[in-house]
Amino acid sequence: MDMKKIGSFIRKIRSEKKITQKQLGERLNVSCQAVSKWERGETLPDTMLLLTLAEILEISVDSLLRGGEPVINYNKNISVMAIKKGIEQLSNLGNLIGKDNTVYKCIVEGINKGMVMDVEECFDDQFKKEALIAEMIVQNIMSGSYVDLTEAHKHFKFDHWKKIVTNYANKHGIK
Fold it and tell me: Is the entire prediction scored with pTM above 0.85?
């Protein structure tokens, strides 16, 4: 926990609610000096006060203790290896059932149209294939999935895609 960040957040929300330090202290039965110390990041509110403080500021205790950072709830873990295997299987589907097969043609056409790309070109070029894998990981992160960055780094050959995935994951709280 970052005491300075928490203090700044308390000050910001208190000010937005147009509550003085004295008023907040009175509502919590603490001195305005105690509130001031919280806001300067010198001390933290007593744990017995957290629920009441959060209620007064109309925030969650999680949000309070994270200094206003969003609480991230990942809805599932994704496996980079599974995505990579899936792309490999998809790229081999044309060889398995034939590239003239209606099912294969519709899959390729759907991907090409939906993503405005030539997916078969991606299958033939390792850099572009990794771009497709990176895009799938990013899409999953956007929908609330967690990815293990160590696994991602292990399965990418190109540093460019490692960096893209890492930067995007970091922006979404994945370290």
Answer: no
